[in-house]
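Sample 1 of the test manifest.
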Amino acid sequence: MAFSKIKLPVGLLAMALFGLVLLSLQLMSSASQASSELSEMYSWLLVVNAIGLVVLFCLVVVNVYSLVRQLRKQEAGSRLTFRMLSLFVLQALAPAAIVFYFSMQFLHQSIDSWFNVEIDRAMEDALELSQVSLDQRMRWHIKQTRLVAAALANKSDTLRALEIANWRETIESSEMAVFTGSGRIVASSSVNPSDILPDLPDEQVWLQLKQNGQYYAIEPDEEGGIQIRVIQKIQNDEPRFLQALFTVPVRIADLADSIEFAFVRYQEMRFLQKSLKQSFSLALSLVLLLSLLAAIWLAFILIRNIVAPVKELVKGTQAVAAGHYRQQLPVLAQDDLGFLVESFNLMTKRIARSRDEARAASLEVESQRVYLEIILANLTTGVISFDADCKIRTANQAAYRILHIPVSRFIGQELDALIDDYPEMADLLETLRDLLKQGDELWERRIAFMGPNGRQELLCRGTPLFSQDGLRVGAVVVFDDVTDLIQAQKNAAWGEVARRLAHEIKNPLTPIQLSAERLQHKLRKELTEESAEILNRSTRTIVQQVEAMKRMVDDFAEYARPAKKQVKNINLLELVRDVMNLYALQSDIRFTLAAEGNEFPVEVDPDNIRQVLHNLIKNAQEAMEGKGHIEIRLRQVHKNNLDYVELAIYDEGTGLESDQITRIFEPYVTNKIKGTGLGLAIVKKVVEEHGGVIWVDSAYNKGAGFVIQLPGA
Amino acid sequence: MRAYKSVAKAVLMSVIGLLPISGGADEYGVRVYSVEFSRSAEQTWILNARLDFRLSPAATDAVLHGVPLSWQVKLRWLKSRTFWWDEIRAEKTIPLTLQYQALLNQFAVRRGDKPEVEMFASLNNALAEMSRLQVNLGTGSVGTEDKIAIKVVFDREALPTPLRPEAWLSQQWDLSSDWSVWPFQK
């Protein structure tokens, strides 16, 4: 409504201006008629129309400029306005130009047709006829006057005064007078008794009279008619002049006037022929230009009003395209465009409602997804999902924790990308890739690989994912690090074996040993020397083997013994030095200790850790056969937000076979001829009981290298 | 072709053709030659002025074709004032009309509002008669600050309607004089 309130005065103004232009043109058209009372206003009307023309032209120019700016800015509706306006201007201009052209042609031909040679000659002949007629009348009166002048010659002025009236009546003069050369009236007579003074000639007539002695002329009289003035010199001693005035009969005078008026009018029109054409052409041009400009200006206003709802619709559509679904447009009119706008408003309402519902659903789905992500992220089980092309779609935190690979950085990439970046994990990743591609079956596989902290074993389960249509859309792989679990199972099994060995085997060993010694003691005196010798050797062998078995059982007992730690806060460097010094004095082996610092505080059972050091150094000694170099390194490391003390022992012995590295810490795994194979198993057990880890430094290739990390105090 | 030329001429005239035509402005027009003052027997002041009417070819052509030409002689009796505009003591306008009488082959001059006309056999005679101006200014004391201003204005609006646009825009029709001021000498 506000829109129409603003636009209404503009429309009224346009209509008023248009009306004024039409009125002005009508007035000018009327004024161009010479007889019109408005002819006095012609020039002003011309100026008013010219001003109106300039005003309309400026309005049109302003509108065109505004439209061009809108076009350049590619504003909504500008192109439609331009098209409609161009169409309108073309449709208006073409017929107007044709009408103008033919009107001008017709006008000029019409004006030209007013004048031709025959009319010219007729008019001139008519005028000449009048002039000849009057001339003949004048000559007749001259002749009469001369006769009277001759009759009055050589007479006294008194006599002339007496006769003049008779002579006037005789020659039918309206007035007759005799005057001297100085203009003094001697005698006079008039048909009108009230005219006391005769109509005397003026200076010019006197001048001509004195030169020629006579004067005659046709001249207008005081009553608007025509009179003939004849002045003739009278022969006399003193100069006397006779003046006779003859009134041309009214009928003849009217006819002559009429002919003169027509002739003058015709001559004037003939003279104005060019001006008439220009004047009418000017009027017609003004009409055309004013009409065209007014029409174009009105077209601007009307087209703007028509395009306004379309413009609003375009803006609304752009707003909807930009995501503003709550856009509502004003309904300007109850027409087709209004219906369109109402439909648009209804559509945006529905879209907004659908958008809200979709957004709510999306939020719900998103919250569910976040919830699932939180669950996945907090799972200890690693989860990696793949799409149909075996590209990684998601991976949780546990996957990184287990694999030590930031899998989430490889979203959208295949496993080959991971293999390229992490070649040490190639075995695991290639196995996974092959399993993913092998088919649509569920699968479960235990896969071992060498991780950064040693051998790891994963229990992987793969599940293909299918859409509702039954199409395979990907797969999910779930895996757990079962290294510790398997190790614990192994440890538990070995512990049970050790306990049983201690219980079942150690108990009979003492009676066996005692019985063998008793046999030797009792039978040694009764047997021959040779037999006694055999007995003695056999008995000793039994005793030695029993002792060996006892040691073996003790080792097992040690391995199976539950941890009873006497934990103390010690400097590991001092403990290492103590142990190292002990061995350095006893053998030819050269020890070097490389410590990055002096303080390596750990909270451990010193006896247990001392045994760990003994076992490792003893192994190294045996591997180097008593000669060589053992290097011990100590340093602080920070890992997973925790401080560790790292102890590494490197020898120059025979080293470890690659297949042994994975199983070297299991019981009964050894490369020595002698030994129970429990030393490193016990070392690992002790280290793990203290919360540490031990692994073989596979990068060291001069011998064997073991790395132990213990939590710092 | 003829119509085309006419249209072109009309458009040209309506757009640019109406611009003033320059040249010849000094050859025609009206000039005030001299002004003299005398006193009548009734002790009224009589102004005798000598004017010079020079018609342009267009104006001569028009008058020979029966188009009447009209002027207005404007007279102002002024009294000079210091630091202010002059005081107008009296003001008079005398119309002059020149017209060709085809029937009598004479030129008629009508002076003032009088019904009678003066007839002249030639245009020069008529113009010569128009050049003599005698005006009764009335009575009144005359001071040294008094002066007379004369201006002869050609009345374009008295011309036939079709001729007016051209008359307003063409120098040929600039037949007016400027104001000329004459001291009131006794």
